[in-house]
Amino acid sequence: MRVLYTSLKYLAVVLWSTFVIAPFLWAVSTSFKDFQSVTNGATYIPWVDFEPNLEGWRALWKSPAQGGVDIVEPFFNSVFVTASGSLISIVLGTLAAYALSRFTFKAGFIRNGDITFFFISQRIMPPVVLAIPFFIMLGKFSLLDTLAGLIIVYIVLLMPIAVWIMVDFFNKVPVEIDETALIDGCNPLQAFYKVVLPNSIPGIIVAGMFCMIFGWTDFFFSFILTFTEVQLLPVAIVALNSSITPWWSLSAAALVSVAPLVLVAFIVERYLSKGNLSGALK
Amino acid sequence: MSLIASNLSFKPGNEWHLDNVCFEMSKGQIYTILGRTLAGKTTLLKTLAGLISPDQGTLTLDDRDFGSIPVWKREVAMVYQQFINYPHLSVYENVAFPLKQRRMQSDQIKARVMKALQQVGLDGFENRKIQALSGGQQQRVALARSLVKEASVILLDEPLVNLDYKLREQLREEFRNIFSSEASKDSILIYSSTDPVEAMQLGGQILVMDEGRILQQGTSKEVYENPNCTKVAQITNDPAMNLFEGRVEAGRIILSSEIELELPQHCKRLATGSYIFGMRAAGITLNQTGFPFSVELSEISGSETFLHIRHEMIGVVGLLDSVQNFNTGEVVRVQFDTMQLYVFDQNEQLVSSPYCGLE
User: Fold this and answer.
1) Chain A residue nearest residue B162, CA to CA
2) Residue of chain A with shortest Cα separation from B74
3) Of B50, B73, B82, the CB nearest to A174
4) Given CB 3.0 to 4.6 Å as the disulfide criterion, which of A215, A248, B310, B331 pairs with A82?
5) Are B113 and B249 part of one and the same domain?
6) CA–CA min distance B48, chain A (Å)
7) Could you tell me if B165 and B187 lie in one domain?
8) What is the DSSP string of A179-235?
9) SS3 of A251, please?
């Protein structure tokens, strides 16, 4: 019975892993194919089913005039907008979350929980509801089709995620740690950055990861709020899908778009899997 | 050096957390704040630390206004009942933290940290991470951090409550040695506890608190021998002092239709009337010629047995100095040692005790 249970468990893991990894492997395989290999039916194994080549990858940094798809600029635009938006959201969101966790706010019927909900409500609304006001406001300030405009929009979209995660995290950090820091000679600001912040790194990393994922994968707002001057990677990749889709370059571009998130996930994995608060309060 | 609190009051909602608290404390002394959970002990300690601003009242230290000094500039140290340390720092860095905040020189910091770690028996643990320590060791780190500051006021908020029994006994002894040492002779040590045994063992002065008020202050001997009211009598005894109502008539104490006791010598001058009588568990023993009580519960604790027994409206706990088993509902014969009898009036104030007689 135990052997059967273990076998079924491993079978389920293998099936799920295959389901998750298969599209990724398919994209890797396609990125090394050429027109012939893609259109001649399903082929799987390089050097056996098809002859691999790097044309799909070389096309990524060639201009359209040279027969390429040029995703270098959209890639770095995406890096800049996502990194800036995430960083500012984390800084502001962490400060807001600390205030919401530690201080009591009262304004009429509004309390801390209501303020936290107001932040989160930004993410509850369908994106299209926010698109028109964003479009009008950015237009008024001449920020449409600019990186700065996109960064502002991303801050609005990403900060609720940071606040939501960090409020929950700070609520789990015993307030006695802050109090001990005060007693040990820190003023409130020092207590925050010398004691609370270093112990909140796992929470900040988790919040940062989510901000980056949501920012990096956003298509809707980058599509609505940009035209010709600025293009982000998701829009650039979708633009490759035309009547003659270069599937090999599309696959390579898709892999490039996934790579930063995979890289970051590997780097911060140890923070995601365990907290750093054991020992603060046994 | 003396710390004086005058009329400290704090009422954050509908209940008083501190109600007109007044006391005077001197350096080199241990003061134990003894009270049940929610008595206001932690609120009082946090007020002394500056973490809570009282609604009214003043705090002075050596005639200086202590209450208006911000917490990070006050000369206080505090150890919590949870083992609060900085998990991102090593043991050494934890203990050195308050000294670094004062911008002391590193050689001075090192000397003081090593001395404090030696005092709490953690020399050799400097480079360990907090997470790698046991609960008792973590609490020693917190204690070392409080000692290293050489603060004027050291606050210990039930520091042993989350430790297991053996470790609690061991650390309590070590605490007493540390506090009576040279290192803490210039400090006022304030220790809060719910455990009367712990308070008595620590010695020094006891302040008994309940519902935000200080009910009695005195040496542990004074408080033990002459609790000034029924609440103090219950708070300072474990198990709580037995209280039962009765009347004094014609030189006898009448507790029920079946139970009458001879007035002991220290109660001879009691006037006829109704009183509340008190007796510690140790004053109630089994005796074949005693009064019939039925067993409600028997609890074995170490080498002793606590016997919860009832006769009509009189429910009491007796202490037997041996391990014995009883069935619920079993009738036992009980004797009251009236030489240990306390008498309180209808306002629950002490009228007579075995130690002071009738005032």
Assistant:
1) A282
2) A183
3) B82
4) A215
5) no
6) 11
7) yes
8) HHHHHTT--HHHIIIIIITGGGHHHHHHHHHHHHHHHHT--HHHHHS--SS---HHH
9) helix
Range of the domain at B74: 2-231
Q: Kindly report, residue by residue over B19-48, the tens digit of the pLDDT.
A: 999 999 998 889 999 999 999 999 999 999
Residues B204 and B249 in one domain: no
Residue B9 C-alpha, separation from nearest chain A C-alpha, in angstroms: 21
Give the CATH number of the domain where residue B184 resides. 3.40.50.300
Same domain, B95 and B207: yes
Which chain B residue's Cα is nearest to A176? B84
| pLDDT tens-digit series, residues A49-89 | 888 888 889 888 888 777 778 889 999 999 999 999 999 99
Q: Does this model's pTM top 0.90?
A: no
Is there a domain that residue A66 lies in?
A: no
Q: Is residue B237 part of a domain?
A: no
**A–B CB contacts, 8 A cutoff, strictly below:** 76
Provide the β-strand partners of residue B256.
none
Domain at B310, CATH number: 2.40.50.140
* B88 interfaces chain A, CB cutoff of 8 Å: yes
Print the domain residue range for A20.
Answer: 2-53
Chain A residue closest to B102 (CA)? A185
For tokens 């020094």, name the residue: B204
Q: How many domains does chain A have?
A: 2
8 A C-beta contact, residue B293 and residue B332 = yes
A118, A240: one domain: yes
Yes or no, beta carbons of A280 and B78 under 8 Å apart: no
* Residue B215 amino acid letter: L
Best B46, B69, B72 residue to mutate vs chain A (most A CBs within 10 Å)? B72
Whether A67 maps to a domain, the answer reads no
Q: Is B318 helix (H, G, I), strand (E, B) or coil?
A: strand
Nearest-angstrom CA–CA distance, A145 and A154? 14
pLDDT tens sequence across A144-200:
999 999 999 999 999 999 999 999 999 988 999 999 999 999 999 999 999 999 999
Q: What is the dihedral of CA A165, A169, A175, A176, to 10 degrees?
A: -160
| Residues A187-218 pLDDT 10s | 999 999 999 999 998 899 989 999 999 999 99
